[in-house]
Specification:
The chain is an alpha/beta fold. It is built from 12 helices and 10 strands. The chain has helices at 2-5, 17-57, 75-79, 101-113, 131-137, 234-246, 254-263, 278-283, 285-292, 323-330, 339-355, 357-369; strands spanning 89-95, 119-124, 143-146, 182-186, 190-192, 206-212, 219-230, 268-269, 276-277, 297-299. α5 (131-137) packs antiparallel against α12 and α10 packs antiparallel against α11 (339-355). The chain binds 2-acetamido-2-deoxy-beta-D-glucopyranose (3 copies). One 2-acetamido-2-deoxy-beta-D-glucopyranose binds next to loops. This is Glycosyltransferase family 8 protein.
Length: 370
């Protein structure tokens, strides 16, 4: 060490070598003490940064506790409101590929099961959807409604390959021209388990449920567009189309990213029961347990019972007769965390298939005819 070796060629002016040795021993002690202090300080720093980061990145949802068991909707107040006319309300879903046809048939029946009275509108891209798939998807109450594809801005640069058609969802806002005053959009991979008519009475223009990720992002501030409440308006639609081209945002998540940017500070945060994303169950099982008996809409994000691929790519169009087998095949994913929800989806599908057997069977003959 330099500190010690610096005395090597040094001729002391005094001859008290013992004292000199004493001094260098003291130096060694001081250096060791300094090193110990340094190490302790490093350890403390790591500890405090860890503690702080926990404070910064955890939400009350990560710290979820079983506290509030009261209903989500104030029934006394809600029943005092004048309800919108059924034909001024609509549930809309979008179909971009044939592989979602059976999911939409099941979604349609799940709406009937809870006595939903709103119009059911199925947006689809005629250039991508076969007659057979459209027949299946509309067998249980959805009315097909062709829409034009809305291309992602900047020629799709920065948009995830899977979401290239997803901006077409923004056609929702054109429904004002067809007399729809309140719309609930449901992704095709959702299943309705309780009636949600109260959403149509919201006095706001836009509402959605915050997103949830199983990874480090966790409970997010951004909303998920799987379930959207909106009051359609062509004027808003035109405004969106114009601003989409110039707004600055990370567009990898397509329409969801844009809507988060557009409604930014004005979106109403809806309770999680309106978009019970499977990711919640993985992230905070206790929260899922508490939501369970109030959940209106389950969102099959992580495992889609009607798709064959583990990555939910939807490349294969499953025959409606192989759905039971497919669900059995997909059980066990995520350590079986969603087996119960998959089972629920299948129970509803079995009912759908039984009740709409004639219509669904006829769809099958479209393919054999063409
Ligand atoms: C739907 O309506 C039927 C007939 O009125 C009723 O028997 C049933 O309980 C209702 N279901 C729900 C979920 O409200
Ligand atoms: C849900 O279950 C809890 C107990 O687990 C109960 O207190 C509450 O009343 C139930 N809510 C509804 C809407 O059934
Ligand atoms: C649904 O039907 C299939 C085939 O008909 C059957 O194997 C399966 O057990 C049924 N599942 C449920 C949950 O009812």
């Amino acid at each position: 060490m330099y500190f010690l070796s610096r005395y090597k060629d040094y001729t002391p002016l005094w001859s008290d070598v013992a004292a000199l040795k004493q001094t260098s021993r003291q130096n060694v002690v001081r250096i060791i003490a300094a090193l110990v202090l340094l190490a302790a300080s490093a350890v403390l720093n790591v500890y405090f940064i860890y503690k702080l980061s926990h404070r910064w990145f955890t939400t009350p949802l990560d710290n979820y506790q079983h506290l509030n068991v009261h209903p989500i909707v104030n029934e006394a107040f809600y029943s005092s409101l004048a309800k919108p006319a059924a034909d001024e309300t609509a549930v809309v879903t979008c179909m971009y590929t044939d592989s979602y046809a059976t999911a939409i048939a099941n979604l349609g029946h799940s709406l009937s099961r809870v006595n939903s009275t709103a119009r059911r509108i199925l947006f689809y891209l005629p250039e991508h959807i076969s007659d057979e798939a459209l027949c299946i998807a509309s067998a249980t109450g959805f009315t097909p409604h062709p829409v034009s594809r809305i291309a992602p801005p900047h020629n799709g640069e920065g948009t995830h390959a899977r979401f290239m058609d997803a901006y077409s969802k923004l056609n929702l806002w054109t429904l004002g021209d067809e007399g729809v005053r309140a719309v609930v959009h449901l992704d095709a991979d959702t299943l309705v388990v309780r009636n949600f008519d109260e959403l149509f009475a919201l006095p706001f223009n836009f509402g959605a449920v915050p997103d949830v990720y199983v990874g480090s992002h966790g409970f997010a501030l951004e909303f998920n567009t799987g379930v959207i409440f909106a009051r359609p308006s062509t004027e808003v639609f035109r405004d969106m189309m114009a601003k989409m081209q110039t707004a600055s945002y990370d567009g990898i998540q397509a329409d969801q990213a844009f809507l988060n940017q557009y409604y930014a500070a004005e979106a109403v945060r809806l309770p999680y029961v309106y978009n019970a994303n499977l990711a919640i169950k993985k992230r905070k099982p206790g929260m899922w347990e508490d939501l369970r008996n109030r959940t209106r809409i389950v969102h099959y994000t992580l495992v889609k019972p009607f798709l064959a691929e583990e990555d939910n790519s939807g490349k294969t169009v499953l025959d409606m007769h192989s759905l039971a087998e497919n669900v059995r095949h997909r059980m066990g994913e995520f350590d079986g965390a969603f087996d119960e929800e998959l089972q629920t989806w299948l129970e509803v599908w079995n009912e759908t298939y039984r009740i709409y057997n004639d219509a669904l069977t006829q769809c099958g003959s479209i393919k054999s005819r063409s």
